[in-house]
Amino acid sequence: xxxxxxxxxxxxxxxxxxxxxxxxxxxxLKNNDLPLLEIGPGTGVLTKHLIERExxxxxxxxTESIDFLKKHYPAHAGKILFxxxxxxxxxxxxxxxxxxxxxxxYNISSQIMFAVIDHKDKVETVVGMFQKEVAERIAEKPxxxxxxxLSVFLQAYYDxxxxxxxEPGSFNPPPKVRSxxxxxxxxxxxxxxxxxxxFKSIVxxxxxxxxxMLRNSLKSLVKDETLFANRHFTNRPERLSVTxxxxxxxxxxxxxxxx
Length: 259
Known about the structure:
CATH superfamily of the largest domain: Vaccinia Virus protein VP39
CATH class of the largest domain: Alpha Beta
Number of helices: 9
Shape: elongated
Largest sheet: 7 strands, mixed
Oligomer: single chain
Radius of gyration: 21 Å
């Protein structure tokens, strides 16, 4: 097989710009000798720079892509996996920490990031291509409309850097939107200083009603109404940093009913 057809249902837009590919690979490998997993290798524009690394694997659900890559790299066929990242047993593949790289399928890029959060104890860095607005949302700071659930969840555990923008002409077929490359680097937070399950529930509840002040969107969680005097409750969720949401979670989690 000498050709891989981009499939709309898989959200495939194959990167063809060699210079962009090299910049992504360089960002992923900088100060990084950890095992590396590529998600969605497609036609192998990133893969060819990585395939000879000892602890490298590429995973895709597209059989055409898998067959294409195995034909081109027969000596490394064992590194090319027919697998869905969202369902992979990463503990079997990597015994310790590892990094992720990819031109991620845009239709599941947010799901990939939620999976990264679930494996935050193992995933040390991520360098990936996203739809530009998703990349900006992940990297965005508090106080803007783009800042949301994914921003808070990822920034709780990762330092995030927006690297560069990629134009549609760098892909085949070209997407209808611009793309953005970001880098996530695991921070030193092993566990949030609050109930992490409650933290996630509060962040989701707050942003699901993002036009409301928190005193209204979170009122079902508040038994002690004296908490409403706290400044966080008079803000909308996009105004709160990760630290603010941690403080809010502790207040709600520790509240006692007034006697």
